[in-house]
Amino acid sequence: MNTLKEIPDHITEYLDVLFVGFNPSIRSSETGHHYANPTNRFWTILHKAGITDRKYHPSEDSKLLDLGYGFTNIVPRPTKNAQEITKDEYRIGKEQLKLKISFSKPKIVCFVGKGVYQQFSGIKNIPWGKQQKSIVPGTLDFVAPSTSGLVRMKIDEITEIYSELPKLISTL
Prior knowledge:
By secondary structure, the protein is α/β, with parallel strands linked by helices. It has one domain (17-171): 3-Layer(aba) Sandwich (Uracil-DNA Glycosylase, subunit E). The protein is built from six helices and five strands; from the N terminus they run E-H-H-E-H-E-H-E-E-H-H. Strands 2-1-3-5-4 form a five-stranded mixed sheet, sandwiched between helices. This is Mismatch-specific thymine-DNA glycosylate (Mug) family protein.
């Protein structure tokens, strides 16, 4: 059995948005790129929401750094689904993510899925969009739906929530 590889973060200082997912998919591990599963709607949603000027391909994920967008995950280990992530992995990942955010100082941290933010913040009842208080001072926490094909929300509903990001960036 071959071992799945972690995928690299794409983070620089002072990003407009740092997107944080649960963890890489098997497909992302195989390709070395974020949101690479063909059923994941991340790249389509970014374009439809006006965050990117075109639909990027997962292999272009590092190019988004030039646009002010970065990528990381709360847990680096690839799995078939988030249910395979252990409590210890979340605990360690939460602390590592706090450090990444503290050092890189993005304007907005966009959590791709309520469950990601619940694991990071310890808060259970979370609204979509900008959060009242951020976990790491100096950034805004923004919670958006997961873009996984398993999510039952319509793509237009998800896109509407993501479309708040460019408006929020313009106010900062």
